[in-house]
Model the fold of this input.
Amino acid sequence: FMYQTMYFPSVALGGDTYFMPLKELYESFSPEEQLYLDKLWMSTGRRQAPIHPLVYKHPFRSNEKTMLFHCGKPFVQGWYKDTEDSEETKESNG
Done:
């Protein structure tokens, strides 16, 4: 998304909310940390889209890497990590 609007009908007292572009967050990690993150997948528990890579190439921004991240249930049921460096993994994650 280029822009996003959010509406919060209520907020927790004393709890700060931080917004950060996930592309910049990914770029802030060392190359070794990026390599680790490139191998992580999240399980959503939804049948139409059961797993998603944590890091992917953005389809509308020159294929630059960004992150897809959800914080816990009901969005994330579990995490998986690629255990091998196959050509398919390299191709899909960059």
